[in-house]
C-alpha cells in the first residue's frame, strides 16, 4: 500500500502524520504484521517503520506480540509482530424508534463486545431515552469500559437527517420519531463525537460492510415493516440526497392515489399506506370482522404476521391480501431498480423477516417489472442492521481522532 503523495510545501510533521495514518490503517486492515513486511508494503525504510511503530506503541494503538509457533520445530527466536490494539477504545451504535431499541458496544475493529435490545417497548421518546442511556451505562459497567474510553457514538432513528454530511442536524420533515431527548442525555454524559442519521441509511451502511451487501458497489436496503424506507449506497458511498430525503420511498405514489395527504404532513405516504404492516393488518382486521378471514383471535388483534401466516396455511382471503401487498411492494422495488440499477437490494423489517420464503416470490414479480433484476437478499443482520451501521458510522468518526 504505497503512501499517498504529499503536495509540495508539506511539512515534515504532515509527512510523519500521513505515514502514521497509513501504517495504522494497514495493520488494522491486514492484522498482525512483521516490521519487514510493513516496510515493503508502505515503501518505507525499516528504521523509519520501526520509529513509527514505536510511536504508535507508546500511544497505545499498537503493540508487539510474538508470532504463534507453527506445527514444526522452531529455529531461533520467534518473530515479533505488530498488532493493532482494538481494545484501545470503543464505539457505540444505537438504533431507536417507536417499536425497537438496540444498543451495541464495539471495539475499534467493529467487533461487538456488548449488546442490548428491546422490541415493542411501548415507551414515549423521553422514557425510551432514559432507558437506553441506563442500559448503555449498564453495558459499559459489565465490560469494564469507562465513559472516556468511548471514542464515538452514532444514533440511528426513523427521521430525516441533513443536509450536514456528518448527520449533525435533525430535521423535523417527515420525522415521526425524534431522538432529541436521547441526544441531549448522551451529550450531557459523553464528550466524544456524537452523530445521528436515518436508520435506513445506517442499515444499508451496515449491510454493505458487515452483511449481505459486502464487496458490492451499489446497494439498496429496503425496510418493510411498520414503516417503509430505503437506504442507498451508490459506488460505495452513502447517498442522502441534497436535503437528506433520498430513499423516502414510503411517499411514492405508484397507484391510483389522488387524495393522498401532502408529503411532510406527518401522515404516511401512499406507498406506505398500501404495503406497510399496519396497512396489511387493517385489511386483515376488516376481513376478520366480515367473517372472511379466520385467524383464531379477535379481529382487532389481527396483525400483518397473522395475515401472512393464514395465507401460508391456505386461507384464500389472507392469500389475496398478501398477494396484492407483494404486487404493490414489487412495483415499488421496480421503481428503485429502474432508477439505480443496484447490484443488490437487501430486504429487512418485520414483514419480510418473518416470512423469508417470500423473497423468491418478490424476485419473480420484480423481474416482470424491471429491465434488470438485481440480486435480492434477506438482511443478514436482521433486527440489528441499523445498529451495526451506526457502529460503522461511529468507527469512521473515531478514526479521525486516533492520531
- The radius of gyration computed from the alpha-carbon positions, rounded to a whole number of angstroms, is 25 Å
**Total strand count, please?**
13
Strand content: 15-25%
Please give the alpha-carbon distance between the first and last residues: 19 Å
Spatial strand arrangement across the major sheet: 6-5-4-7-8
What's the gist of this structure?
It is built from 13 helices and 13 strands.
Structure description:
Helix 4 (125-143) runs parallel beside helix 5 (180-189), helix 6 packs across helix 13 (385-399) and helix 8 (277-289) packs antiparallel against helix 10. Strand 7, helix 5 and strand 8 (194-198) form a beta-alpha-beta unit. The protein is of the alpha/beta class and 403 residues long. The longest helix is centred in the last third of the chain and has 25 residues, at 316-340. The protein has helices at residues 12-30, 35-42, 46-58, 125-143, 180-189, 199-210, 270-275, 277-289, 304-312, 316-340, 350-353, 358-369, 385-399; strands at 33-34, 62-66, 80-84, 90-96, 100-107, 112-119, 150-157, 194-198, 219-224, 228-234, 237-239, 344-348, 375-378.
Keywords:
403 residues; alpha/beta; Arc Repressor Mutant, subunit A; Nucleotidyltransferase, domain 5; 3 domains; 5-stranded mixed β-sheet; 13 helices; 13 strands
Please render the helix and strand layout as text.
Blueprint: H1 12-30, E1 33-34, H2 35-42, H3 46-58, E2 62-66, E3 80-84, E4 90-96, E5 100-107, E6 112-119, H4 125-143, E7 150-157, H5 180-189, E8 194-198, H6 199-210, E9 219-224, E10 228-234, E11 237-239, H7 270-275, H8 277-289, H9 304-312, H10 316-340, E12 344-348, H11 350-353, H12 358-369, E13 375-378, H13 385-399
Parallel strand pairs: 4-7, 7-8, 9-12, 12-13
Antiparallel strand pairs: 1-3, 2-3, 4-5, 5-6, 9-10, 10-11
Amino acid at each position: 500500500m504505497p503512501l499517498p503523495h504529499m503536495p509540495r510545501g508539506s511539512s515534515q510533521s504532515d509527512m510523519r502524520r500521513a505515514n502514521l495514518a497509513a501504517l495504522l490503517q494497514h495493520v488494522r486492515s491486514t492484522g498482525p504484521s512483521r516490521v519487514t513486511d510493513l516496510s515493503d508494503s508502505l515503501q518505507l525504510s525499516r528504521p523509519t517503520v520501526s520509529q513509527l511503530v514505536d510511536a504508535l506503541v507508546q500511544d497505545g494503538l499498537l503493540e508487539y506480540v510474538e508470532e504463534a509457533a507453527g506445527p514444526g520445530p522452531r529455529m531461533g527466536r520467534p518473530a515479533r509482530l505488530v498488532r493493532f490494539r482494538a481494545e484501545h477504545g470503543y464505539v457505540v451504535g444505537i438504533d431507536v424508534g417507536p417499536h425497537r431499541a438496540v444498543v451495541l458496544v464495539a471495539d475499534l475493529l467493529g467487533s461487538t463486545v456488548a449488546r442490548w435490545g428491546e422490541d415493542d417497548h411501548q415507551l414515549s421518546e423521553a422514557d425510551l431515552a432514559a432507558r437506553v442511556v441506563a442500559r448503555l451505562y449498564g453495558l459499559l459497567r459489565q465490560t469494564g469500559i469507562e465513559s472516556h474510553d468511548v471514542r464515538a457514538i452514532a444514533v440511528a432513528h426513523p427521521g430525516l437527517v441533513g443536509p450536514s454530511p456528518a448527520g449533525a442536524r435533525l430535521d423535523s420533515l417527515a420525522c415521526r420519531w425524534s431522538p432529541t431527548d436521547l441526544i441531549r442525555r448522551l451529550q450531557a454524559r459523553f464528550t466524544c463525537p456524537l452523530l445521528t442519521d436515518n436508520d435506513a441509511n445506517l442499515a444499508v451502511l451496515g449491510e454493505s460492510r458487515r452483511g449481505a451487501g459486502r464487496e458490492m458497489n451499489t446497494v439498496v436496503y429496503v425496510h418493510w415493516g411498520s414503516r417503509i424506507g430505503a437506504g442507498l449506497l451508490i459506488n460505495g458511498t452513502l447517498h442522502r440526497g441534497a436535503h437528506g430525503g433520498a430513499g423516502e420511498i414510503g411517499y411514492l405514489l405508484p397507484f391510483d392515489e389522488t387524495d393522498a395527504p401532502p408529503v411532510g404532513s406527518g401522515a404516511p405516504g401512499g406507498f406506505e399506506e398500501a404495503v406497510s404492516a399496519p396497512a396489511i393488518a387493517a385489511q386483515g382486521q376488516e376481513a376478520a370482522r366480515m367473517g372472511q378471514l379466520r385467524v383464531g383471535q379477535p379481529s382487532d388483534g389481527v396483525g400483518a404476521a397473522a395475515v401472512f401466516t393464514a395465507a401460508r396455511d391456505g386461507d384464500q382471503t389472507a392469500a389475496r391480501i398478501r398477494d396484492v401487498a407483494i404486487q404493490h411492494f414489487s412495483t415499488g422495488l421496480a421503481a428503485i431498480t429502474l432508477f439505480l440499477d443496484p447490484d443488490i437490494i437487501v430486504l429487512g423489517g418485520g414483514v419480510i423477516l418473518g416470512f423469508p420464503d417470500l423473497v423468491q416470490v418478490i424476485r419473480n414479480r420484480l423481474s416482470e417489472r424491471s429491465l434488470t433484476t438485481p440480486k435480492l437478499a434477506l438482511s443478514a443482520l436482521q433486527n440489528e442492521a441499523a445498529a451495526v451501521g451506526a457502529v460503522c458510522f461511529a468507527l469512521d468518526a473515531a478514526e479521525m481522532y486516533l492520531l
